[in-house]
Amino acid sequence: MSVGLIIEKCRADNRAALIGYLPVGFPSVEGSITAMKVLVESGVDIIEIGVPYSDPVMDGPVIQDAAVRALARGVRLGDIFTAAREVSGAGAGALVMTYWNPVLRYGVERFATDLAAAGGAGLITPDLIPDEAGEWIAAADAHDLDKVFLVAPSSTPERLAAVTSQCRGFVYATAVMGVTGARASVGEAADALVSRTREHTDLPVCVGLGVSTGDQAAEVGRYADGVIVGSALVRCLTEADSEEQGLEALGALACELADGVRRGRS
Amino acid sequence: MTTTSNVPAYGRFGGFGGRYVPEALVPALEQLEEVWRKAVVDPEFVGELERLQRTYTGRPSIITEVPRFAEHCGGARVILKREDLNHTGSHKINNVLGQALLTKRMGKTRVIAETGAGQHGVATATAAALLGLECVVYMGRKDTERQALNVARMRLLGAEVVPVDNGSKTLKDAVNEAFRDWVANVATTHYVLGTVTGPHPFPEMVRDFHRVIGVEARQQVLDLVGRLPDAVLACVGGGSNAMGIFHRFIDDESVRLIGFEAGGEGVESGKHAARFSAGIPGVLHGAFTYVMQDEDGQTVESHSVSAGLDYPSVGPEHAHLLESGRAEYRPVTDVEAMEAFSLLSRTEGILPAIESAHALAGAMKVGRELGPDAILLVNLSGRGDKDVHTAAEWFGLIADDGSPRLPDDDGAKGMGEQQ
C-alpha cells in the first residue's frame, strides 16, 4: 500500500504526517524493530527503515555512528525485510531508506519482489536520481511500490519537474543544503522549497533534515504534508545507557513530535 | 519510464560511469559541465592553462630512458615519462590547475579536495594559493600519519587539513567527507575531485586535463626511438595518471595499455586494492564502476603500502577499457613495488613515489615477457620524497623512534642487502 494513502488520511485530519527514521540493526535487529514499534505506538505514521551502509555520504555523525555500530554487530541487508514485515504488521507505513549500492548488489528486481512480499511500501533513495533509476522505476511500477526521490533548495524548476514526475508516495524535500542531523532552525528555505515543489506536482511534499523538536514539527507541519525526523530519534538510542532507557527516551520524543504535528495547524 | 540502466547513456563509458549523487548536487554538476565545456573551446581559458603548464608546472615534462633499470626488465628498453618533475612533484597538478581556473569562472571562492598520499591535496593547496582561493583538504587519519610531511606542506601553503576518523580512515572516507562538505557548501565551493572517478562530468573532465601526459609522451617517444612503444604502463588507484597517459594511445592498436593495481599483501590475502581482480561492478562515490564490496553491497576496506592506491574503487573509464579488452590490469604486491622502488633509486638515481613504483614493478614483469626488442613507456607519476619515511621504515633504515639505524646495528636489513 502506498504511503501516499496514509498521508491523505492525515491531511483529512488537518495535520501533517509524522515520518520517523531508524536504522535496522541498532542496537540489534530485534532491538531496532522493537524501537520502530515504539514509534508506531507513540503516533508516528510512517517508519523510514534505514539500511546501514559503509559509505553514507548524505548522513551526519549521528546516523553514521549508528550505521557503523549496526554493521559491526552483524546486521545484514536481508534484515530489512523482517523489519518491513513487522512495521507494516504494526499498522504503519514501511518505507525503506537506502543508498543505492546494496540494492544493486542484491539485484533490483529481486529486491523489489522481496520488499513487496514483506509488506514494504517502497524506497527512499538518497543517492539515486531519477535519471539513473530506470531499472528501479520499472521494478517499482511492476511491484506497486513507492518511489521517493529527493528535491533540494538548489533544485532548479527543470529538476523539480523531472524529479517529481518520477515520484510515487511523496516527494522528499530536504530542508537545508547539507547532511542529516538536528539543527537549531529548519529555516525558510524549506517553506520556499515546498511551495516551489507544489508548482510541479500534486503529490504530498514532506520535509526532512534538521527537525528534532515538537515545536519544529509543528512549524514544518504548517506548510508540509509530512515531517521527517531522523537523527534526533536515532540519538535517543545511540546515547542511551541501556536499551530500556533508549526506548523510553525514544517514546517520549516521538510523543512530543506527534503532538507537534497535531497542533501545527490548529 | 525514461531510461534503462542497460543502455549506454550520457556520461557513460560503455555501461560504466553515470551520476549517482544526492539531488542537491545535480545543479552544481550541471553548472560544472556547462562551464567546463565552454572553457575548453575558449581561447582565453586554453591559453591561460597552457601558460600555467609551461611557466608554473614546468611542462612539457621530459622523458628519461633508464638503461640500468632496464637490465632488470628482461633487457627491454624502458622510457619514463617524468611527471615526478612537475611542480608539486606529481601529475596531480595538471588536473588541479584546470579545475581551479574553472572554479574562478564559476565565481566560487572556496575549493575542497580529498587526498590519499597527499599529492592531490598538495596540488590543490598550491593552486588555491596561486589563485587566491580558500582551501580545505580532507585526509583519512591513517594517511595523515603515514604522509605527515605532506600534511605540513599543505598547511604551509595555507590550506586547512581535516583528518577524517570515519570508516577505514583512508582515501575512501576522505572522499565521503568531501561530499558531505560539498552538499552543505555547494553555493560557494567547488569540489576539486582528484581522480577520474566520481559523478559525471568528473571522470571525463579530469582525464582531459591529464591527457597532455600521453600527448607529450607519444611524440617524445616517436622522436627518441622512431616508433610507438609496445606497451604503456601506469599505476592505477583512482586511475588519473593512467588515463592521462593511456588516452592518446587508445587508437594505436599496436600499443598495449597495462594498468597496475595495488596487490597489497597479495590478492589471495584479501589485503589489497586490486579492484579488477576481486571487485565487482557497483556504485561508489557517484560512479558505476568496479567496487570492492561484500555480498550485501558494503564497501570492503582496501590495503596497500601506497596511500595513493589504497582505494576500493576505480575510475569508470578503466572499467570500460577492461571490459572492452583495450587495456589490461594486473596486481602488484607491496613487496614487488618496494623492490622496484629500491631498484630505480639505486640504478638510476630517481626516487619514485611508491604509487609509481607499482608501474615500475610492472615494467620488470612485462619487460621479461616481451624481451629485449620491446619498448616500454612507464608513467613515473610522482616522486618519492613524500615516501622517504615509509621506505626508510620498510627497509629498516630507521628505528621505531625515527632515529637512524646504521648498518652494524642489529636488525638493519638495508636496501643494498635486499638485492
Q: Report the average pLDDT across residues of chain A.
A: 96
The CATH topology of the largest domain in chain B is what? Rossmann fold
Largest sheet of chain A: 9 strands, parallel
Strand order of the largest sheet of chain A: 5-4-3-2-1-9-8-7-6
Low-confidence stretches of chain A: none
Task: Please tell me the total number of domains of chain A.
Answer: 1
Q: What best-fitting shape of chain A do the alpha-carbon axes yield?
A: globular
Can you tell me the CATH topology of chain A? TIM Barrel
CATH homologous superfamily descriptor of chain A: Aldolase class I
Order of helices and strands of chain A: HEHEHHEHHEHEEHEHEHEHH
Q: What is the assembly state of the chains in this entry?
A: heterodimer
Number of domains of chain B: 2
Give the amount of beta strand of chain A, in percent.
5-15%
What is the CATH-assigned architecture of the largest domain in chain B?
3-Layer(aba) Sandwich
CATH architecture annotation name of chain A: Alpha-Beta Barrel
The largest interface is: A-B, 48 and 42 residues
Jot down its keywords.
heterodimer; A: alpha/beta; nine-stranded parallel β-sheet; 12 helices; 9 strands; globular; B: about 425 residues; Rossmann fold; six-stranded mixed β-sheet
Q: Describe it for me?
A:
The complex is a heterodimer of chains A (266) and B (419). With 266 residues, chain A is an alpha/beta fold. Chain A has a single domain, classed as Aldolase class I (TIM Barrel, Alpha-Beta Barrel). Chain A is built from twelve helices and nine strands. Chain B folds into two domains: 157 residues, Rossmann fold; 217 residues, Rossmann fold, CATH 3.40.50. Chain B is globular and about 55 Å long. The N terminus of chain B is likely disordered. Chain B is α/β, with parallel strands linked by helices and 419 residues long. Chain B is built from 17 helices and 14 strands. Chain B has a six-stranded mixed β-sheet with strand order 3-4-14-9-10-13, sandwiched between helices. Classes of the chains: A alpha/beta (266), B alpha/beta (419). Chains A and B meet through helix 3, helix 5, helix 7 and strand 6 of A and helix 1, helix 8 and strand 11 of B.
